[in-house]
Write a structure and sequence with these properties.
The protein is mostly helical. It has 16 helices and 5 strands. InterPro entries: WH-like_DNA-bd_sf (IPR036388), WH_DNA-bd_sf (IPR036390).
Length: 312
């Protein structure tokens, strides 16, 4: 392959969960993606909070997938409340009312709007606004950048040069992850954070401060972090933050070095291992997705098949 053609294809094969989890730089990319997601929160806190529980993450990823899969010539495609619920119903993670309320919240905050070219107003088709689209692409690209650090790949560069990789890859990854019990069903050790409202962002904040995974007397120290500091930064009550920490504290999975939650916060190796194992599922699915998307894009180009319309 000529050198100038290398930039038109991915340079490295997809990594497996085991390769990602056991890579010596996995801690580095976990801290990196946590900091990236914290930065998204700092830039658009309202938008970040709408994806900050596992239930909302699932709904957000799938509604975006439905948007990207929309064919303007087919009224059976695209994003509606009923279509989003129908896709997720078999997983028993949301109710119809939860979906409707969440979409109404996104519309109120101007992250969704009515689709202007819809032929069926009764179903109220929706589309994602530019602000939401930028945030989702930033999320996707941040993960590509982290994967590139593991193997010297060019995923992020390819996504920037070929929009089809994101347009095809995000729905592929979203469906794969939601369908995978290893991602959908949280490890018990971290569930009290990730199911909680804004708990995902709190956990990203903690991981972003992790300097090393070295153990000291069976503990991995993060530095001084207070409940009040977290509550203020993420605009949630101290009571709710304490509720996130309580199950893991009671199980000896994390704690502070001094009484009354003072001093340095620490994780147990079990807590960190379970979280990293869960995260490796996401990274592997995204890597598989971008490689699949590139193959689809390449096949379309070589066969002369028109690419699908990009909604939004």
């Amino acid at each position: 392959m000529p050198d100038n053609a290398l930039h038109h294809r991915l340079l490295t094969p997809p990594l497996s969960r085991e390769q990602i989890l056991n890579h010596p730089l996995f801690l580095t990319i976990e801290v990196g993606i946590a900091r990236h997601l914290v930065s998204i929160h700092e830039e658009t806190p309202r938008l970040a909070r709408l994806k900050a529980s596992h239930q909302k993450w699932i709904m957000t990823q799938m509604l975006y997938a439905l948007q990207l899969e929309r064919d303007p010539l087919a009224t059976s495609t695209g994003l509606t409340a009923s279509r989003l619920y129908d896709v997720l119903a078999r997983y028993a993670v949301v109710s119809r009312n939860t979906v409707a309320s969440y979409l109404a919240e996104l519309v109120a905050y101007k992250f969704l709007r009515d689709a202007p070219d819809s032929q069926d107003k009764r179903k109220r088709p929706l589309e994602i606004t530019d602000a939401a689209a930028r945030a989702m692409y930033s999320w996707f690209l941040g993960h590509m950048t982290c994967l590139d650090r593991l193997d010297g790949g060019n995923r992020a560069e390819r996504c920037d040069s070929d929009p089809a990789l994101f347009r095809l890859g995000q729905p592929y990854a979203a469906r794969a992850l939601i369908d995978d019990p290893a991602w959908r069903n949280l490890p018990e050790t971290v569930a009290s954070f990730i199911w909680a409202e804004s708990g995902g962002m709190v956990l990203h904040e903690l991981i972003s401060r992790l300097a090393s995974d070295k153990e000291h007397d069976g503990k991995i120290f993060l530095g001084e972090i207070s409940i009040a500091e977290i509550a203020q930064k993420y605009a949630i009550s101290a009571t709710n933050v304490k509720r996130m920490f309580a199950p893991a504290e009671a199980a000896g999975l994390l704690g502070w070095e001094r009484p009354r939650r003072r001093g340095r916060l620490w994780f147990s190796p079990t807590f960190l291992r379970d979280y990293f194992h869960w995260q490796s599922v996401k990274f592997a699915a995204l890597d598989e997705a971008v490689h699949w998307a590139e193959q689809q894009s390449h096949d379309d180009e070589t066969s002369g098949t028109p690419r699908n319309h990009k909604a939004g």
